[in-house]
Amino acid sequence: MIYAKVGEASMVYTGDYNMTPDRHLGAAQIDRLKLDLLITESTYAKTIRDSKHAREREFLKAVHKCVSGGGKVLIPTFALGRAQELCMLLDDYWERMNLKIPIYFSAGLTIQANMYYKMLIGWTSQKIKDSHAVHNPFDFKHVCHFERSFINNPGPCVLFATPGMISGGFSLEAFKKWAPSEKNLITLPGYCVSGTVGHKLMSGKPTKIVLDKDTHIDVRCQIHQLAFSPHTDSKGIMDLTEFLSPKHVILVHGEKPQMAYLKERIESELGMPCFYPANNESVSIPTTHNLKMSTTERFITSCATEQGKQSLRKRNLIHGTGTSEMNDSDEAVAEGVLLMEKHKAPKIMCEDELLQVLGMGRHLVQFETMNPSGLEAAVESELKRAEAADLGSEGK
């Protein structure tokens, strides 16, 4: 998450986040900030997920049933994040169940990602940090690298392959080979964009996938969809928004109907103006600029003194000793001067204090009343002086 501040205006841009801890990473954390704007992802703007443990049990049960029947399990996943999460889950389960069926990684990128997880163990969940001294959870005992030639090997196995949406690459290659068999299983753990093979599989159980005019894939395998996406759900978005309490919210990275639903919830339940602009659309967010300033001790004392005088006048009126009218809404006002100097914080002070800062003495302007004859003489004298000045300029 990125926090940006310009002057007194500030905002947070979340990127992708999850408010629920994983096996390998903790929940998203951020300080409570005073924000004008929160820009948050909204991938699952309308989804409320069930128990994480229930999803894990369902996933393990489906995988175990498939490999026990001699089938192959294809898990299309991104190289970073879900691959490590599900590998930890399967590796632990394989250890407990004493299974000897191979679990494979197809992507060299995933192996590199695992290396960085080992190096940056301090960024992982507290559970991993606590157990790291005894065993590094990213040293998977039952997971090994997959060679392309293994794709036609007989017998059961589990394969993690990229990309996660089966839009190309090795996950698509394995899908072409394994989809026609009823014994095999395709498990889709994350979000798939419309138009990809993964999205077509999630939208229903198709019997045929048409890639192009020359490539048709018979789909007889089992299809299992589980919400193991790293994105937070609708509850997580609402929780973060309520925690940060920004003045305005912008939703990005989502689908328009779901974003419209979440916008209504944020505005009705949290009372925050919310926007979900289309690509290239501009949004103008008003901000309030507050000027912080200090006051001198003497000015505070003068305010207190004036307040005391005001209270005394009110008491006198109540007891019938005052002569002037006073309303309950009348407030004591102490006059001060706001001094704003370059590269210094603004400060409110008394008038005498300002004179000391400027090194000046108090100047007074006095007016004297003139009688009519004296005023006429002064005006006549001024007119003659002006005429003399005009004649002098004409002579030049």
From TrEMBL:
Gene3D superfamilies: 3.40.50.10890. Residues 83-201 form the Beta-Casp domain. One of its GO terms (molecular function) is hydrolase activity. Keywords: Hydrolase. InterPro entries: Beta_Casp (IPR022712), MBL (IPR050698), RibonucZ/Hydroxyglut_hydro (IPR036866), RMMBL (IPR011108). The keyword Plastid does not apply. This is Beta-Casp domain-containing protein.
